[in-house]
Amino acid sequence: MTAFDLYTVGHSNVAAERFIAMLRAQRVSAIADVRSAPVSRFCPWFSAKNLAPLLAREEIGYLPYGEALGGRPRDPELYCDGVADYEAMARRPQFEDALTRLIADAARCRGAGRLCLLCAEREPLDCHRCLLLAPALAARGLSIGHIMHDGAIEPQAATERRLLELAGDDGNLFVTGQHDRLAAAYRRRSRAVAYRIRKN
Question: Residue 7 — φ and ψ, nearest 5°?
Fold first, then answer.
């Protein structure tokens, strides 16, 4: 059995059958849907109303977490210059409470398999499941693996190495330690890919 406590996956435009196969390969027993808007116009099988019964037929649970852990908060105070502020979101008591519930759900899944966070983006570094949720879960002692579309599992530590490579040398002489470099890289990447409020 894998050493990961939970997985994440981005559905992108993968076919339903392939998606189920990806979950089965990692013994996923429940999905925690962390999409703020769990609908898909282009792949309707990933809309919650279709996805939940599809998973149920495969004996995979469906847990809606988008309201509590989604990347598009409703509160305008959780935006900075129109961009979702992951650091502000992570400081909210509601976020802490939702993580506590999620960790409990992950523990309940372990007898039958693993819990998997679901969002839309194929690439973990383009998604709040990696930039917001995975670091918060790792800080609580959980090991996270990202299910890639080629079937590989990328540990969060490897994802963070890619993040640092993407960040390169940011030119900030005050960011010298690995922890500071990683925090700065998370901040920069989050600012680049987080949800933006559309201006009319």
Answer: -115, 170
